[in-house]
Amino acid sequence: xxxxxxxxxxxxxxxxxxxxxxxxxxxxxxxxxxxxxxxxxxxxxxxxxxxxxxxxxxxxxxxxxxxxxxxxxxxxxxxxxxxxxxxxxxxxxxxxxxxxxxxxxxxxxxxxxxxxxxxxxxxxxxxxxxxxxxxxxxxxxxxxxxxxxxxxxxxxxxxxxxxxxxxxxxxxxxxxxxxxxxxxxxxxxxxxxxxxxxxxxxxxxxxxxxxxxxxxxxxxxxxxxxxxxxxxxxxxxxxxxxxxxxxxxxxxxxxxxxxxxxxxxxxxxxxxxxxxxxxxxxxxxxxxxxxxxxxxxxxxxxxxxxxxxxxxxxxxxxxxxxxxxxxxxxxxxxxxxxxxxxxxxxxxxxxxxxxxxxxxxxxxxxxxxxxxxxxxxxxxxxxxxxxxxxxxxxxxxxxxxxxxxxxxxxxxxxxxxxxxxxxxxxxxxx
Length: 430
Hints:
Elements (H helix, E strand, L loop, with lengths): L1 H26 L6 H4 L16 E6 L3 H6 L1 H8 L4 E7 L2 H11 L7 E4 L5 H11 L3 E5 L5 H10 L3 E6 L3 H10 L1 H8 L3 E4 L2 H9 L7 E3 L4 H4 L9 H8 L7 E7 L4 H7 L5 E6 L5 H10 L4 E3 L15 E3 L6 H7 L2 E4 L13 H5 L4 E3 L7 H9 L4 E2 L3 H10 L1 H18 L2 H13 L6
Parallel strand pairs: 1-2, 1-4, 2-3, 4-5, 5-6, 6-7, 8-9, 8-12, 9-11, 10-11, 12-13, 13-14
Helix pairs in contact: 4-20, 6-7, 7-9, 12-15, 13-18, 18-19
């Protein structure tokens, strides 16, 4: 089967090369670890396996998943008989994983997860030699799962999620993908709806466990964040004036959000992806607004008396920015082309939070928050922001309700830890 899939992958790659090739050139993502993407782990800190220590490979595709597993990795670090290796796919994910878990920080090997060609998968597994594999949220690839099955390496999905549109896509692929899901040892998933979908694409029902989402645990309930003051000072943010922070935004939202913030308030925009930074600059210029970039805080693109737009054009500082805000806005939720972003972080920081009406990727989380009045959903962010800035009682009530939901739902990380320790045959330590 591996050779057949390789042929299909190759034909697909060639047929779509004008699309992904131009995208790589346009975004600069062609500058990547190509050797790693074909299974080479040289120079990634992989040492020899230690006697009596089980090696767990945890794969998170990009920044969101890499951040998500912080508490899980910490829990596993407390178990002497376990060694964690972190794998990731994207350039931004790799940079974030290296900063969080690499040899200079967390002390873990960080490797690039390979394309699903059988040769690269074999080379990768020969080097890593995991005793078990945890795939964060999804990322179920046929050749990889089959190779693990042949080696007797159990494969788990943790914090599993399978949206309705992804479910329909996998169902259309039928036998091409069903074997990979059937090859999972266990799927720990967030909700009953996701559980039904995992069964629907081939995971035996007895292997699916509903354990809630670890995102409740990653939302650290606190009032201050290290580095927030330095960020404000570096960018020239006036701590005496209201600040609106729009995080994880997407193209098409720039104009809406720039126009939504009152002129007597400051606005900071943090796009979800680096290739979207310039779109904020262009739109601000079109609207006659200056731009103060995190990477160039002493200059603006336009000489204007209008208050500038602050652009967070770095990765890993959004939480600090949220902590400075009077109102937070969660992007990728206003145009209908995407399906929302994680809203827990600003809510955990005690911030009244606004999101657009398109949040299908976070439906269960949103259901809990909406039911408690812990978030504001609107297609008119200008009105919502204005009301929250002017009605501080309402803002405080929204923020408090959201925080209480988070506190009440925490604890899933330990359940996923126990699931993985069970696969490794290692006893949990309380």
